[in-house]
Give the backbone structure.
Amino acid sequence: MAIWLAKEAREMVRLGRWIPLVAVYLFLGVLQPITFKLMPLILSSASNLPEGTVIHIPPPTVDQVLYSIIGQYNQLGILALILVGMGLIAGERKLVGEWLWSKPVNITHYVLAKYSVFFLVAALSSLVGLGIGAYYTVELIGPVNWSALCQGALLYVLYQAFLISLILLASALVTSTTLAGGLALISIVLVNLLLPMVWQGHFVSGLLELIQATLSQTAWSRSTPFWEPIVTTLMGTALLIGLQIPLLAWRKTSH
Amino acid sequence: MIECKRVSKKFGTFKALENVSFRIPSEKCYGFLGQNGAGKTTVLRMLVGLLRPDQGEIFVAGQSLLTERQKVQKLCGYLPQRPEFYPWLSGEEFLRLSAELVGVPARQAKKAAGKYLDTVGLSEFARRRVGKYSGGMQQRLGLASALIGDPPVLLLDEPVSALDPQGRDEVFSLLKKLKQEKTIFLSSHILHDIEQVCDGVVIIHKGQIKAQGTMPELLKQSGESIVRTQVHFEVDSRLMNQLQAGFSGALQGVGVPVSNVAWQEQGLEQFFYKVVKQAEEEQRQNSSSGQGGAKDGNMAR
């Protein structure tokens, strides 16, 4: 396992894969509080309104700003995750598959190392981004409840863990990096759009609601217990990681 | 040591292998000879567990590949035909990874990497990124990766195809040493390469084994004192005359005898160009090493 972790860490650094993750998450963290603060100014200078028009924008609340960071993470952040993750397995299989699979590779170690390093970099980036976002929120908007923020951030990291397992599964399914990216994007869109329609308050859609409730310090309003989305997302993540192992073992001989 | 029993493989409707059976004894070096597309790479990929046969059985060192693939993979060092490795790792880092994958303890992996880099003549490039290695250097690195962990079986798919003449000689010398203690099965479509190092040969044509045995056995079967390969070409008469004139002239110019050439194939201008270039190169090599004129290029054999 250690050799795979070392190899994955080297790959992450030497190919600069960490850069889009850190850049996007930090940028989004900084951008949201500044955008909210400057929104009235932006609107008045950018929109071509008749003279004398008065726009009344209620001042943003702290939880609105913080949740908007999560909202941005869920769009540009996901694209950055897909960009980095789509080639992690697919690209490697295409490049060195013949050499790699001729060795007695422990596929469980291989998958776990890939997952761990990718998750670690993504989670750290999003946490640092949220931290910086919270700092600017304190400076520009108002005081932050750090305890609620930490809980919300940890829940978001759990959501990220699920997304990463989905992206890596897509990457394990095909050898084309582009196709893997497309598959991952479609899967995530389906999870984010369709799941809330059919299964509101449960699993991943429940987790996103829980993050919002945590950040806004409101009570969990669903009839299901608050831990249900957490447990089911954890189980879903474990299942998606677990699926990669037999899939790659089977792919080893049909490379 | 390596045994294939009635192995067949189809890719869609294309029969890549049909009832392939052969046996390679322990601590011998056997060549796997056949044209491009004959099925050599398919067999080698099966032997190392990269492809599953549709039918038949494969045994390596007494272990069935179908049921004990991981064990078999530990016993085999494999050099792919087109070796491609992580371009962002250095040669040494790559070999350490290779070593640990085959079970060399982490503490000894660095030492093993250094030893095998030295064996294949890449010591001075140990810290250079693999992406900056030439094709020949990558092939040497692939050979080192196959050797690391000291596996008893080596499966080498055209191990010298990207090497210059000096590199080929070095690799063949290394293989001659290694065959004292390892079972080596190497593929090539060049008979001369096989003759240099192998004790025996398995000949495959269009997915079927045509002959197998030691060199003396095969020579005895053919009733000749040399192994002869014929090249058949077919071209229209006008082009044939042009090619024959140019080809013979060019080869005579560099002192290579042309014999037993039947013309039965179309569109071979590129091929002739390569042959002439190769003959010229061999002539140049031989002149520079003081061995006189090239007497038997691969084409004339």
Observations:
- Residues 2-37+56-252 of chain A form one domain.
- Chain A has one domain: 2-37+56-252.
- Chain A touches chain B at residues 2-3, 7, 10-11, 14-15, 95-96, 98-99, 101-105, 252-255 (CB under 8 Å).
